[in-house]
Amino acid sequence: MEHLLVTIGRDMFAIFGVLALCGGIFMVAAKSAVHSVLGFLFTMLCVAGCFLSLDAEFLGMAQILVYAGGIVVLFLFVVMLVELSKYKEKGVFQLQTRSAVVAVVIGAAVFIGVFRNLLFGVASSEALVLRPELAQGLNVAQQNAQAVSRGLFSDYLLPFEILSVILLVALVGAVVLAKRERV
Amino acid sequence: MVNLNTVLLISSLLFAIGIAGVLIRRNALVILMSIELMLNAANLNFIAFARHSGSVSGQAFALLVMGFAAAEVAVGLALVVALYRKRDTVQVDDINLLKG
Predict the structure, then answer these.
(1) What residue numbers bound the domain in which A27 lies?
(2) How many angstroms away from the CA of B100 is the closest CA of chain A?
(3) How many domains does chain B divide into?
(4) Which of A61, A134, B49, B79 is 20 to 30 Å from A175 at the Cα level?
(5) How many domains are contained in chain A?
(6) How many CB atoms lie within 10 A of CB B21?
(7) Residue ranges of chain A with pLDDT lower than 70?
(8) Residue A96 domain-assigned?
(9) What is the distance between the alpha carbons of residues A140 and A137, in angstroms, rounded to a whole number?
(10) Separation in Å, CA of B66 to nearest CA in chain A
(11) Which residues of chain B are within 8 Å of residue A130 when distances are taken between CB atoms?
(12) Interface check A34 vs B, CB under 8 A
């Protein structure tokens, strides 16, 4: 039992990653839009689990809050607003699906061919570990939120402020776009 | 302990699924969700390399990407709603005014 728990804890990332891939495939392949949204929710939760297993606790929690709490609800609202049922009889996939699949397969083959050495060569067995001498000053493992906020408000203050302006613009733009036109 | 290449492989597969969703689906909502999936794959890479290099810069950038994704999905969904009001459809195949 203890051995099993140790194994699960060690392979937590792989478990969540494979689950996220399954959720993504379900999202793309589902016929109904509501099923797609549910697959998206599952995928986002699994990606949050991946973040947590990579020692990014703050980002994992933010992922759950932003995606599961905000974006999925927004998607569900729009699915309810937009009546999708009358397009049921048309096909789910686009007309050029076959050529798209061929393009994706060729792209994956080229990707694997180019990065073959990096993926399967000698360097591929290098473990992803937190270097203790670098983590000393940042306290990444102990105080993740503190370390992230220190980086965000010192080195990346300008992108942070730009992001806040962009969020404001997106807010106003979304209201203007979605507002019913007056005639 | 997780391998760096496991993370890279899983995130590239997530990105590929997102690209496949954008390319083969005709529902604008599913296309937006696929774009979100691709942004999440990029975030996964950011966090993996942040942990690999022992610096928090990658995590800070991942947080910024998350904010941009929220802004993008708000505008995108507003566009979908406006499109539905104007053209009465959310299927991207039916939106071909510029096709010529």
Answers:
(1) 1-82
(2) 18
(3) 1
(4) A61
(5) 1
(6) 26
(7) 1, 9, 83-97, 118-142, 182-183
(8) no
(9) 8
(10) 8
(11) 51, 54
(12) no
